[in-house]
Task: structure prediction
Amino acid sequence: MTPSTATAVARQTNDLDAYWLPFTPNRAFKRAPRLIARAKGMHYFTPDGRAVIDGLAGLWCTNAGHNRDPIVAAIAQQAAELDYSAAFHFAHPKSFELASRVAALAPADLNRVFFCNSGSEAVDTALKIALAYHQVRGEGARTRLIGRERGYHGVGFGGISVGGIVNNRKFFGTLLAGVDHLPATYSREHQAFTKGEPQWGGHLADELERIVALHGASTIAAVIVEPMAGSTGVLPPPKGYLERLRAICDKYGILLIFDEVITGFGRLGHAFAAERYGVTPDLLCFAKGVNSGAVPMGGVIAREGVYNAFMQGPEHTIELFHGYTYSAHPLACAAGLAALDLYRDEQLFERARRLEPFFADAAMTLKDLPGVLDVRTVGISAGIDLATRPGAIGERGYEAMERAFHDEDLVIRITGDTLAIAPPLIVTEGQVVEIFEKTARVIQAVM
Ligand SMILES: Cc1ncc(COP(=O)(O)O)c(C=O)c1O
Result:
């Protein structure tokens, strides 16, 4: 054991009290901590040196793998060159360079990039741009925002208002006014054990017509959806669903926002899900994979027409009263440029596309295990629903995640009793097999 890992282990026994962990059962965690000291490529290493395979790309973000040398070097060099420069009224060159590179990856005229620091901020930024867009065009009555049941759009008040996960909403008051929700697109009865986009469910987009009829199109600013809902268990869009949403939004002058915080940067085998599905939103939220999770960063890509709507009035006035101290932080931009180079040079999006059928077949080997109610796959991601123990929602899932880490040296994600697997895009076929074999043993152990 090196001195630094020894220190980490020593600290482990003393210092667990002060840190309030996010989205974590703190008491259970502190009884049996899952500590990660370092990482490389596909693996984490615990303080005592155990290699743990990362089945979740960090938290859906380290798409190029962990601690990639070019990203590490870019961050170090940037820190030495320019730590920070004011984000308002000033800019540094790499912010423009990264914006151009991100815009070049996005389809059609999605080519104006606003930077922030997380997926949650990206969502709230997009919602605010949508509201302000209608206002600056003289349609200020368009104030309603439409989200979707089972949607996850981060934890800002905007994001939880349009989001559709009850526990993320019910503790936090009345949320934003004037929000409505489309129905979730998932039906186990019609879709169980589907690889890719289910045949059933495209018609659910027509629920937007009902919502428009209820509220009046002239009151609706925007619709926001994840092309594939990741956080609630990998729910790919039904065939034709996104196209229909797009058509209805066009018909009524409603902006369509894609939250691509998970689907962006290769998870579905393309730079963005918008490209995979051939549907162009008006605003596209990204974060996570933009710099392979190395430095907090998020952003919104706007269509040119949306941006242009703001570019009026006297030139010395601010066009959008919104931004963050750390918008386009130099370290995040440097990491982003290095990550985009890696994605390009190693053709990681294409690699993900090629690997998708193999990955889906490997995931489906879990199908016949006792207690497995559904397996869904799309791109390099899989959701596995386990039967819930009577009266104990989430207990089996939590135990699965614990056993995966402690007994199988594997990190997976859980939402209730649903497991999610989404490794870095550098994962090999052998590692895909390893991850699903380990997951199978975990599932057997918790049944
Ligand atoms: C679709 C989606 N939107 C927004 C977020 C929030 O991102 P962050 O945790 O960076 O705020 C997430 C996080 O998983 C996400 O999956």
Remarks:
- The chain has a mean pLDDT of 96.
- The longest strand covers residues 110-116.
